[in-house]
Amino acid sequence: MENFKSGFVSIIGRTNVGKSTLINNLVGEKVAATVDKCQTTRTAIRAIVNKENSQIIFIDTPGIHKPKTKLGEIMNETAWGTIPDSDITLFIVEATSNTIGKGDKLILEKIKEKNKKTILIINKIDLIEKEKLLNLIKLYNEEYKFEATIPISASKGDNVEQILEEIEKHLPYGPAYYDIEEYTDQTARQLVEETIREKALKLLDEEVPHGILVEVEKMNLRETTKGEEIYDIEAVIYVLRNSHKGIVIGKSGSMLKRIGTYARQDIERMFETKANLKIWVKVKENWQENNSILKRFKTE
């Protein structure tokens, strides 16, 4: 198509700055887990926005953090690796900061090094005074020549459309990479795994979530005797130690039941069909250092 634009946009920032909330807002669909805890996103998730004259492929990346495990190292590598391969980078920072912190400085240095087209997104503007925001805009723009600076509130959806308009200006001309019906490159199994993990992250104690791994072992679509479609899903939540297993299951299975109920409700909304979800909890010690498991988190 003549005058059609397409390209890849990486979203980068520290943990918990609102990247996943923003990407879900931009796409208008739930493609990334959103939890008010660090290191929610573990892999590079692609989300697709189809507009009349363009296709924007967003890459939601793990938050940049100080790694304590091999998994943490891979998550950082994944995030850094998206910058050189993208047409545009969205650098997200929090409006609540008074200065450019260590983590944001580190990201800025990488952006400078790659010299890529970058749009600065200042999130959570609903939490601060305007004067503070202006000061932050000045600080960042003295450091790098951004294509644009857009203050937003990802949770409220403020100024999100402005981001899409700005990206469109800077995209190269080219064909659509994905079918216009698609909004993510994740498989149905991956979407289910992320949904279960998100519910576990939201409901569990601080110490447990980072050690959780979810694997869907079976996922079959069948017809009931009444001719209705239903997904039969069997999944396992892996934890690092036995004490965590007890926490995930809860008294008389109460916690696991809550995780399963909330996950099933989301899965049914996502696939617009009934789901029969069964979840087990097993211990897999030290999986965050296990190379064969960590392969799934590496970007090809």
Mean pLDDT: 82
- Beta strand %: 15-25%
Q: What fold name goes in the CATH topology slot of the largest domain?
A: Rossmann fold
What count of helical segments does DSSP give? 9
Structural Rg? 20 Å
Main sheet specs = 6 strands, mixed
CATH architecture of the largest domain: 3-Layer(aba) Sandwich
Give the topology, please.
Layout: E1 5-13, H1 19-27, E2 45-51, E3 54-60, H2 70-85, E4 88-94, H3 102-114, E5 118-123, H4 130-143, E6 148-151, H5 160-170, H6 188-203, E7 213-223, E8 229-239, H7 242-249, H8 254-271, E9 274-283, H9 291-294
Parallel strand pairs: 1-3, 1-4, 4-5, 5-6, 8-9
Antiparallel strand pairs: 2-3, 7-8
Helix pairs in contact: 6-8
Characterization of the model:
By secondary structure, this protein is of the alpha/beta class. The chain has two domains: 5-170, 3-Layer(aba) Sandwich (Rossmann fold), CATH 3.40.50; 188-297, GMP Synthetase, Chain A, domain 3 (2-Layer Sandwich), CATH 3.30.300. It contains nine helices and nine strands. It has helices at residues 19-27, 70-85, 102-114, 130-143, 160-170, 188-203, 242-249, 254-271, 291-294, and strands at 5-13, 45-51, 54-60, 88-94, 118-123, 148-151, 213-223, 229-239, 274-283. The strands form two sheets. It has a six-stranded mixed sheet with strand order 2-3-1-4-5-6, with helices on both faces. It has a three-stranded mixed sheet with strand order 7-8-9. Helix 6 (188-203) runs antiparallel to helix 8. The longest helix is centred in the C-terminal third of the chain and has 18 residues, at 254-271. Residues 35-42 have low confidence and may be disordered.
